[in-house]
Amino acid sequence: MTDAGAIKGQEKDEMPLMVPEAAGFHTATDEEGRSCVTLTGNWTLRGIGARGDELSYALKPYTQSHANVAWDCRDVQALDNVGALILWRLHGFDRPRDIKARPEHSALLHRWSERQTPPYTKIKQARSLNQALLAMEQGLISHAHDFTTLLGQIVLDIVLLARRPADIPWREISATIYHVGVRALGITAIVGALVGVVMSYLSALELQAFGAQSYIVNILGLSILRELGPLLAAILVAGRSGSAMAAELGVMRLTEELDALSAMGVSRTVRLILPKLVALGIGLPLLVIWTDAIALIGGMITAHMELGISIPSFIHGIPSAVPVINLILGIAKGMVFGVVIALIACHFGLRIKPNTQSLGLETTNAVVTAITAVIFVDAVFAIAFRGLGLP
Amino acid sequence: MADAIVEISHVYTSFGPQAIHEDIDLRIDKGEILGLVGGSGSGKTTLVREMIGLDQPTSGTVTLFGERLDQIEPDRLARLRQRCGVLFQGGALFSALTVYENIAFPLREYRALDRRLINDLVYMKLAAVGLDADVARRLPAELSGGMTKRVALARALALEPELLFLDEPTSGLDPVTAQAFVHHLKNLHRELGFTAVVITHDLDLMHDLCTSLAILADRRIVALGKPAKVAHDSHPYVVAMFSGERGLRVFGGLAS
After folding, report:
1. Whether A319 and A370 share a structural domain
2. How close A27 comes to chain B (CA, Å)?
3. Whether residue A168 sits in one domain with residue A105
4. Beta-carbon count within 10 A of B19 CB
5. Model-wide pTM > 0.90
6. Is A105 in the same domain as A153?
7. Are residues A147 and A107 in the same domain?
8. pLDDT on residue A328
9. H or E element: which one contains A83?
10. How many domains does chain A have?
């Protein structure tokens, strides 16, 4: 019999490799009236394919009474774990009394008979409202805790650096200013110019109706210098640099670079976070001035074309129409926005856990939170300084 | 004569001006465990990537399961790859999925198995690589190096592969774990009868697991054959490798 098996094995080897013969079976009744089930083909993942249920259903009647059925697996060309599992599940994980199998298959079949697998369970269970609220509370507490730790560490580092100015990471600060500031000049210019044009064009239509064309200077100057310039620059930088900063810290966590820094005795706040804070604190006000200028130029050209206000008279009109405190307020807002964006990006960046899902989630959170915080801080400024610089 | 699972003929590979492979011929037969050995940067991983069709050789042909990879249609290649399991060097487990989901992933993608069957298979694979069932709920970040390798092996074995690629399966493991890992692989090979290509620097692994060795040096395969025979090759790299103190300790018994 073993010889026959060996010959069968030879034949199998010569079959084309790509198409394994499908799993199947045939039944017969021997002289004693017993059923004999002979399994054929490849009882493997690929041999069974999607026909697992079909085969199980067809074989089910023969598993009812073990005594009357003889199982013959010797003609099976190949058997793997999937085939063995389907057979064993059929028998309720109970070894049939009369089963013949080739020795190499016996071991595989035997393994399943003693295996205990935990039942299939859904991993995620529905949470009750109570649990959801509790999780939210814990989330808030952990955010508050992390953020306070970050702030405290930064204050400690500033004190340390004040005592040892040689340790101030100038190179990192300069490089970060280049990345967040210089490289954002193009996009802020495009957006600023377009918003200036739109503002000027829409106001021009309304002002013409009242014959108050010269007030375009007041409207554009005040809204752009005080509100739109800082806000546009901040939102663009939050989207651009906020995500980059969070992702950078996250990938450094993923690749254990954060730990490597700590192991070398280099403070990650001094080397990674402080430069971002300082760079955005310096870079964003500069970007605000740039955005203001471009937006005003855009508005000015549109005003010239729509209302016929000459460019020199527009430029000369601005200082008298808009108190200079509005420009200072706008720049100050830029500085605060910059620090807020950097803090939030670093906070979420440091919360990234070493897996890809967390990286995406926290980077998104960083950007969304940074933009929301910028608008929130802007509202606070608007209320706090309502008596300043307005006509 | 057994079937050739992988056949590489006259393969040349170069990245820009830098030549990696020059005229490589290699044939891997069914049931064989081929150890692919060579110095760092000798193109072992590239050769394996060419065998799965992840990279294309500059010239020459690679034949996998009798099909030429340079002339194959994408869906056919995908089906061929389902018959291969790959254990990447770093494990390459999906970091956002639990161990259970990592192993279940290829089984689910196969789209022929129901959930209860997948469940049983996942726990069976875990047990087969010597891990407890409670590891299943952990995330890859919470595993030790040895556990990561085992989970990666379980995932590579998920679809009952006929051909298994192992990229440095024992690197970064302590000697005890490495030995146990080789033992597991050997048992699995006996039971499942797969063919394997193992990239390794581990002399013990070459000695205990591999049925043949291919030594890659100077952009060519300089020695090929049974480990005992290859260990006595006269190429300088082979001599340096197997006649060093460690080489003699592992392969010395073969010489006498």
Report:
1. yes
2. 26
3. no
4. 13
5. no
6. no
7. no
8. 93
9. helix A81-90
10. 2
Q: Identify the burial level of B123 via C-beta atoms within 10 angstroms of its C-beta, where 0-12 means exposed, 13-18 middle and 19 or more buried.
A: buried
- Decide which of A51, A80, A113 is a domain's last residue: A113
The string of pLDDT tens digits covering residues A218-257 is 999 999 999 999 999 999 999 999 999 999 999 998 888 8
Q: How far is A5 from chain B (nearest CA, A)?
A: 16
Q: How confident is the model at residue A343 (pLDDT cuts 50, 70, 90)?
A: very high
Chains A, B: CB contacts under 8 A, how many? 85
CB contact under 8 A, B141 and A89: no
Beta strand pairing status for B4-15 and A99-100?
unpaired
* B120 in A contact zone (CB under 8 Å): yes
Question: Is residue A45 a part of any domain in this protein?
Answer: yes
Which residue, of A73, A96, A113, is where some domain finishes? A113
Candidates B77, B160, B163, B194: best to mutate against A (most CBs of A within 10 A) is B160
Residue A73 and residue A152 in one domain: no
Residues A53 and A176 in one domain: no
Please report whether residue A322 resides in a domain: yes
Q: Which domain holds residue A28?
A: 24-113
CB A234 within 8 A of CB A336: no
Tell which phi-psi region holds residue B66, choosing left (phi > 0), alpha (psi between -120 and 50) or beta.
left
Instruction: Check CB contact of B78 with chain A, cutoff 8 Å.
Output: no
Residue of B nearest to A353 (CA): B141
Q: How far is A192 from chain B (nearest CA, A)?
A: 40
The reply to whether A188 falls in a domain is yes
8 Å CB contact of B119 and A119: yes
Query: pLDDT-derived band of residue A113, with 50, 70 and 90 as boundaries?
Result: low
Interface of A with B (CB under 8 A): 13, 16-18, 44-46, 48-50, 52-53, 80-82, 85-86, 89, 104, 107-108, 112, 115, 117-120, 123, 254, 353-358
Residue A2 within any structural domain of the chain = no
Residues A190 and A316 in one domain: yes
Residue A189 shares a structural domain with residue A44: no
CATH number of the domain where residue A63 is located: 3.30.750.24
What is the DSSP secondary-structure string of A154-212?
HHHHHHHHHH-GGG--HHHHHHHHHHHTGGGHHHHHHHHHHHHHHHHHHHHHHHHHHT-
